[in-house]
Amino acid sequence: MKFKGSCHCKSVVFEVDCPNEIEVEDCNCSICSKSGFLHLIVPLSKFTLIKGEESLETYTFNTGVAKHTFCKVCGVKPFYTPRSNPDGIDVNVRCLDEKPASIKVIKFDGENWEDNAHKVKHKSKDA
Questions:
Q1: Which of 23, 26, 52, 89 has the most other CB atoms within 10 Å of its CB?
Q2: Is the separation of the CB atoms in 13 and 50 below 8 Å?
Q3: What is the CATH number of domain 2-122?
Q4: How far apart are CA 17 and CA 22, in angstroms?
Q5: Rounded distance, CA 113 to CA 96, Å?
Q6: What's the whole-number mean pLDDT along residues 108-121?
C-alpha cells in the first residue's frame, strides 16, 4: 500500500510503499529519543519524494554516514538515510498522514548501536 506523509508545514511531501501491517523501531539513541523518530526502514525503491527537495537540509555527525534530513522551514525530520541502512530510507511513521492499520513497535537499543545495527540491516533490501 502507498502512504503519503509530510513535514509539519507540508513543504516536504513523500510517499512510501509498505504493507498495511508493519514493524517499526523505537530507538533510544541520542538523536532519535530527542526527536521522537519512529523508524520504518524501507528500500529506496519503496520511497518517492513528491515535493520539497529544495526545502530539505542535512545534518550529519559522528561517522557522517547517516544523512539526517529535515525541513528547513518547520524543522521536522520526516525521513533520513540511516547509518544502518545507507542503501535505504528511514521514514518517521509519525509523519505519515494516514497510518498503516497495524503497527508493531519494537524497542531498539541505539545507545549500543554497534552491537545492534545488524538487527535492522535486512529492512532496506527489496523482497
A1: 89
A2: yes
A3: 2.170.150.70
A4: 11
A5: 26
A6: 91
pLDDT of residue 113: 86
What are the residue boundaries of the structural domains of the chain, listed by start? Answer: 2-122
Could you give the C-alpha distances from 5 to 56, 79, 90, 108, 120, in angstroms and in order?
15, 10, 13, 23, 22
Q: Could you tell me which residues come within 8 angstroms of residue 85 by beta carbon, excluding any fewer than 6 positions away?
A: 41, 120, 121, 123, 124
Q: How far is CA 1 from the centre of its chain?
A: 17
Cell of 21: 501491517
pLDDT tens figures, 19-32: 999 999 999 999 99
What integer is the mean pLDDT of 2-21? 98
User: How many whole angstroms separate alpha carbon 35 and alpha carbon 29?
Assistant: 10
Query: Looking at the DSSP assignment, which residues form a beta bridge with residue 96?
Result: 5
pLDDT digits (tens, 9 = 90+) for 59-109: 999 888 889 999 999 999 999 999 999 999 999 999 999 999 999 999 999
Closest by CA to 11, choosing from 53, 59, 48, is 53
